[in-house]
Write a structure and sequence with these properties.
The protein is α+β, with helices and mostly antiparallel strands. Helix content is 44%, strand content 20%.
């Protein structure tokens, strides 16, 4: 840990001898410490001249930890949104394995409860949350997802063709939200991205409201509220303490 804190103060890197002196250890001991850290990607060895600096492994570790905490951090946000829109279904979805999965869900039957561990799989081409992930993934991530979920099998009955999906995803990137109301569902669906510290989509905050209650003013309010909540989650960095669970959060399934 002392080695990591030392290197964090020197982004240009330090030679082995200086690291050993600062840590008050012999050079072979410092070398072994740095070799172990480098094997996990926490330290990077540079050449000409040889020196050591922090590697990307620490950022990966922080991002993994941050994503794992999202269902816990998101409980308060989902519960608050469900109380504000009691006729809606609220979800917080993450990408797990090869699926976009609802990790949190609050329904009109129990708007005061945020059920953790719902694990409802989101349709790859028929849900706003899955489309949000596709919009903000890299081309490689999107291509891999579509290999696992071929459009001809899962999306051809919903969209004109895959080009129509891509046009919609471009709109999502421009607007910052997905509203696939062209899918002709009995609800008005919407979702917004929650970005990780590294910039990619870590989650999607989604909502579905009965069509007869989703007038223009309500839709505008919903999108503004969703984006505000997603922004709060995005900026809840891995170093921030967890909030206590709301009084009515259901943890029995989580």
């Amino acid at each position: 840990m002392d080695a990591l804190f030392l290197l964090a103060q020197h982004p240009e890197g330090l030679p082995l001898g200086e690291i050993a002196r600062e840590l008050h250890v012999k050079p072979p001991t410092a070398h072994n410490l740095l070799r172990t850290l480098a094997s996990r990607g926490f330290v990077e060895r540079l050449r000409d001249p040889v020196r050591y600096r922090l590697g990307g492994g620490l950022l990966d570790l922080a991002a993994t930890h941050w994503r794992a905490l999202l269902p816990y951090r998101g409980q308060e946000a989902v519960t608050r949104l469900a109380r504000r829109f009691p006729s809606a279904v609220m979800t917080l979805a993450q990408f797990v394995g090869r699926e976009v999965v609802a990790m949190l869900r609050a329904s009109p039957e129990r708007p005061e409860w945020a059920e953790r561990g719902a694990y409802q799989t989101m349709h790859p081409y028929g849900t706003a949350s899955a489309l949000v992930f596709q919009a903000f993934w890299t081309e490689e991530q999107r291509a891999a997802y579509r290999q696992w979920h071929p459009f001809w099998e899962h999306g051809a009955h919903l969209w004109r063709d895959i080009e129509a999906v891509d046009e919609f995803l471009e709109q999502v990137r421009q607007r910052g939200h997905a509203v696939p109301d062209q899918l002709n569902k009995p609800v008005w669906p919407a979702a917004v991205p929650v970005f990780s510290p590294g910039g990619g989509p870590a989650a999607a905050l989604g909502i579905a409201i009965p069509l007869d209650e989703a007038d223009r003013a309500t839709r505008r309010e919903v999108l503004e509220t969703l984006k505000e909540a997603a922004g709060e989650l995005t900026h809840a960095g891995p170093g921030r303490p967890l909030q206590e669970e709301p009084e009515h959060v259901d943890s029995r399934t989580g």
